[in-house]
Amino acid sequence: MDSPMCLVKNADGELCVEPEAIDYLMGLKQKVVVVSVVGLYRTGKSYLMNKLAQKRSGFALGATIQSKTKGIWMWCVPHPEKTDHTLVLLDTEGLGDVEKGDSKNDAWIFSLAILLSSTLVYNSRGTIDNDAVEKLQYVNELTEMIKVKSSTDNEEEGEGTQFAQFFPNFVWTVRDFTLKLEIDGRVITPDQYLENSLQLKKGYGKKMNDYNVPRECIRNFFPSRKCFVFPSPTTPDNMHRLDSMDEAELSERFREVADTFCRFIFQESRMKTVIGGHTLTGEMLGHLVTTYVETIAKGNVPCLENAVLAMAKIENQAAVDEGLAVYQNGMEDVKALFPVDINQLSENHLRSETQATQAFMKRSFKDDNGEFLKALVEAISNHTADLFKQNKDASEKKCKALLENLSAQMDQGIKEYTIPGGYGLYCNHHDNIVAQYRAEPNKGVRAEEVLEQFLKDKSAESNSILQADKQLTKKEKKFQAEKKKTAELEQEKAALNEQKAEMERTIENIGRGQEKYLKEMKEKMEEERNQQQQEFNRTLDRRMQEQKDLLEKGHKEKAELMRQEIEEIKKKNQLERDANTRNQEALLDELKCSKAKPDNSCTLL
């Protein structure tokens, strides 16, 4: 993407997606790292985003008091340090723009930035004082603007734990910082400066509550926090031409902080994930943006769980389509060779089926009841049945044409067999046709069956010639008739063996295929369980650190409440894991049913 494009348009207070930007995301198959910047208008957000894009210009930089960015603008660039990943930069409309006059609109922009990001950069000017914290008022409203689960009430979500598990990392960038980083004469880091600014005060009453609530929200919702303090980049007189200034003209200290900030974002910002720990591609991000914005436009509260389920449905259907396409493409080479024998066709089928299942598993997620895997199995089964029929038809056509060609001369000279001794001549020609037919390679799966039918069709003709041959005695005629009957029975047996071999190989294919499905499904379930647990462990570690910090600062009551909360979420997480494990085991047992009953009494696979 050469330059930024509008992703979410804000027109007269109404939010809507820009189709062109969504189309771009839909074509982006790489995993994405999403970094959003939010903050008050005219605080230099766009400069940071251009810096992250490693471009001098791109996002609009303004030198007036008017906000330049409206809605949410997107710039997709190759990730500087993660191969085959895309860095998606989202520059948001400045908060607190007096020209808008609607704080609700600001709250939705802020909420969207949180919902879409893996790292959220909050940009402000001056210092992190009480005024700066209070201007981050939208954090206080998050429980009203976002739901994690559709079935969970706000009181339960309000504890912040569920939000923290799915919210982005939080980076506070302070621009034009002029203070010394010291507390009581002791030099501190920017991170310590941020944590000190978010410390809670002891006491009760409205004034104390107003002071502590926004800080508690930031601490609860964003347990992973980082801070960078930027000195002024240049003199006040030069600020109006900041976008056109050479890097060398900017203050050295400013450039050092900017470089450190970029390195941190590039190295520490993780891939965008959703509930369950599933990483997103650009295409999946496009679905997510559309779902969230449409939900807001309808006047509803965005729900992470519902959005992920809607996206999973779309992605899983796409995974089915992709898996089927992989199978169909894999079978094209052998299809061009029809007719082929059952072993060659089966080996190609099993190889293509394996590739199709792997393609499906790689893309699918949250297929909790196996609905889409079953759909893929059914689609492949239908296509396989059609291919096997085509192969049979091709075999039958080739064998019939071969026998017709081999017997043409014999059919035309039927009168030469009506003489004494003609039956012996007929048998010689007949046996020669069968021998040439058997010598012909690559006849396919209907070779014996077509030959059986050919011999049956010739039976009346053969018997007529036998009975008309005056050279043979009655006893010889009886012997020849029995000999012919024995040959027909042997051929019938050969045809049955051919059909039996095909059936046995088909059943073997089903068994091997089902074993692979079960193995892939089990591995996929284990992978998703591990992703969910890793996601939970990260949140739990941060909450435990928060509890430890509260204890160290003397907030014993709050620390004890947090300890109880931690124990509660650990119990809840274990219950959810146990329930998920039971559901997954039940699904695997259900899928095994079809393996145990190949007679189709259980037809899941």
Automatic annotation (TrEMBL):
Single annotated GO MF: GTPase activity
Keywords of the record: Coiled coil, GTP-binding, Hydrolase, Immunity, Innate immunity, Nucleotide-binding
GO biological process: innate immune response
Any coiled-coil regions, as ranges: 472-579
PROSITE patterns: G_GB1_RHD3
Domain GB1/RHD3-type G: 29-270
Record-linked Gene3D superfamilies: Guanylate-binding protein, C-terminal domain (1.20.1000.10), P-loop containing nucleotide triphosphate hydrolases (3.40.50.300)
InterPro entries for the chain: G_GB1_RHD3_dom, GBP_C, Guanylate-bd/ATL_C, Guanylate-bd_C_sf, Guanylate-bd_N, P-loop_NTPase
Similarity section: Belongs to the TRAFAC class dynamin-like GTPase superfamily. GB1/RHD3 GTPase family.
Protein name: Guanylate-binding protein 1
Annotated gene: LOC109888175
